[in-house]
Amino acid sequence: MKQNFSKIFGLLFLITIVFANCKKGDTGPAGAAGATGANGANGASGPQGPKGDTGVANVIYSQWLDVAYTPVKDSTTGDTLAWIATIPAPSLSDSILNTGIVKVFLNAGTPTVKAVFPLPITDLFALTGLLNVNCYFTLNTINLYATDNASSFTSQGEKAFQYRYVLIPGGVAGGIRKNVDWNDYNQVKATLGLSN
């Protein structure tokens, strides 16, 4: 048994020395690419992902509208105290008033050369002096009031001082889009996909 053990030990020692002294050869050239194999079967469907952000599919907006203001007169002196107007907004629901956003914009320019401002506005350099235009909202109606006549008019064949509203229904509490300046008409237009 000792002889067998010595032979086995000697053989293992010899194999160890041979492998330890072997040197790896250089890598040979790459072979040609093989043919493309057939597609395998589709894997199982993965789990449903989390619910995404609420979209803007229900946003309601008007075209650019002509608005006519009427003066509010002092009953004693006859002086004009303010100018008021209304814009019918049939989709301005109680739900939007409670959970949504209502924005009103004034295009002080023309349809071809726009100068769009979010309401309220204060114009210290108006031709007639200080001009304030403000708004408040009631069911189905946008109410406007101003310190001077801010009615739409036509100048050199183009409309000027037109108004547009945007109604954004509430989706999920706290789910209003982040990083949108709702007073920047161009950001609102781009975010909501409004047509010109």
Please write the string of helix (H) and strand (E) elements: HEEEHEEEEEEEEH
Helix count, DSSP H or I runs of 4 or more residues: 3
Strand content: 25-35%
Major β-sheet annotation: 5 strands, antiparallel
Distance between the termini: 100 Å
Rg from Cα? 38 Å
Strand order of the largest sheet: 2-3-8-7-6
Mean pLDDT across every amino acid position: 82
What is the count of β-strands?
11
> Helix coverage percent of residues?
10-25%
Shape type: elongated
The low-confidence runs, each spanning 5 or more residues with pLDDT under 50, are none
Q: Strand pairing plus helix content: what structural class?
A: alpha+beta
Structure described in brief:
This protein is an alpha+beta fold and 196 residues long. The protein is 17% helix and 28% strand. The strands form three sheets. A five-stranded antiparallel beta sheet has the order 2-3-8-7-6, with no helix packed on it. Strands 1-11-4-5 form a four-stranded antiparallel beta sheet.
